Amino acid sequence: MTTPAVGSGAETEQQTEARMRAVAAELAAAGLDTSVHETQGVLDVRATLRREGGGPVEVTYDGDGYVTVTFWHARGATPAQVGATINGVLGVITGKPVIVRP
């Protein structure tokens, strides 16, 4: 079985596992609680950043390259603050600012 890889053909299961463990190691080195899970033959990395005074930031990265990030925004934040946070996240992901208007 192989897993698609962006722009480089396909990976073997061993290559995918090595990549997932390398990603987990990078996140752990950055201070996140990290683990590699296998569900029905599909690997994913789950990582949590615990923030003092705020809810955790949770990240899931799967073998196909799909990433989800979830977090709790501060209670009482204004629409402008929420928009600015989302804009900042999107800017980091896309490499350019994205205008989000509340």
Explain this structure to me?
The chain has 102 residues and is α+β, with helices and mostly antiparallel strands. It folds into two domains: 70 residues, no CATH class; 29 residues, no CATH class. Helices cover 32% and strands 30% of the residues. The chain has two helices and six strands, in the order E-E-H-E-E-E-E-H. The strands form two sheets. It has a four-stranded antiparallel β-sheet with strand order 3-4-5-6, covered by helices on one side. Strands 1-2 form a two-stranded antiparallel sheet. The longest helix is centred in the N-terminal third of the chain and has 17 residues. The radius of gyration is 16 Å and the shape is globular. The N and C termini lie far apart (45 Å). The N terminus is likely disordered.
